[in-house]
Write the structure tokens for this entry.
Amino acid sequence: MSSLPTTTQAFSARFTGVAIGLHWLIAVAIVGSFSVGLYMVDLPLSPQKLKLYSWHKWAGVTIFLFVMLRLVWRLSHRPPEMPAGMPAWQRKAAEATHVMLYLLMLAVPLSGWLMSSAKGFQTVWFGVLPLPDLLDKNKELGDLLQEVHELLNFGMAALVIAHLGAALKHHFIDRDDVLARMLPFLARTTGDIK
């Protein structure tokens, strides 16, 4: 009997193309939005700063929508199993990290929208679609929400770094196919992942 996976096994050992596409689209959007956010906060008030704030808010709404789509896809398409030899504590850590990442990917843009509402700046998606303010204008609440938004962002950045570190560990140290499941161009190292 051949040790090579059948077509069905090979397909089930990877994420779907939609899941992979959404993963990388969201990842790039989050890194870009986070970078713009870090850059824009200390700029002096100018048309350029206002434009960057608008782009940042548009990105946040877009990320929120893509994450919702990714969640719907994930609920209807089971992700591949972790390697059979993976310790239980690593499985639990991976599951907890993914849950926290999903929560933060929703909470960060939502906190930004709440902050904008409380500060009295309506979010107009791509300059065309005005979104309703979620809160009445309240400077103190807006300042508090700004701090919450920043903390959530840095928390998500820390989790993303841990997620990336774990993926690289699996690829270079454990030499399993965990990273190859999300990067189709990587050569598979084993044929027994289910």
